[in-house]
Task: inverse folding
């Protein structure tokens, strides 16, 4: 699972003693934050031992642009013509319905 903000993980693992294995990290996260996005993201860590919190944060799958809609993600994934450019940085065209919904929200409908 991709997480939007690593701050949740920092809070969750702030009192964990390192070095720690993936299993110890996941068990600690389950005790302190069961059912959270941070716990699910930590469950996706690669197996191994982690010497400190920074190693854990580098290994967690982070969403680089959480504001993208599923339609934008699909468009960016399939319509690209610039090799080497990160997916979330590719130009996108919003579907007309999304533009209309955003406009309605701004206007209070």
Result:
């Amino acid at each position: 699972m991709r997480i939007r903000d690593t701050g949740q993980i920092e809070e969750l693992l702030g009192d964990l003693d390192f070095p720690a294995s993936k299993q110890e990290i996941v068990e600690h996260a389950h005790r302190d934050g069961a059912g959270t996005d941070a716990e699910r993201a930590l469950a996706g860590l690669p197996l191994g031992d982690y010497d400190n919190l920074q190693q854990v944060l580098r290994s967690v799958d982070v969403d680089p642009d959480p504001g993208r809609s599923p339609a934008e993600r699909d468009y960016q994934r399939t319509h690209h013509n610039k090799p080497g450019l990160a997916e979330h940085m590719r130009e996108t065209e919003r579907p007309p319905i999304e533009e209309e919904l955003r406009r309605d929200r701004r206007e209070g409908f």
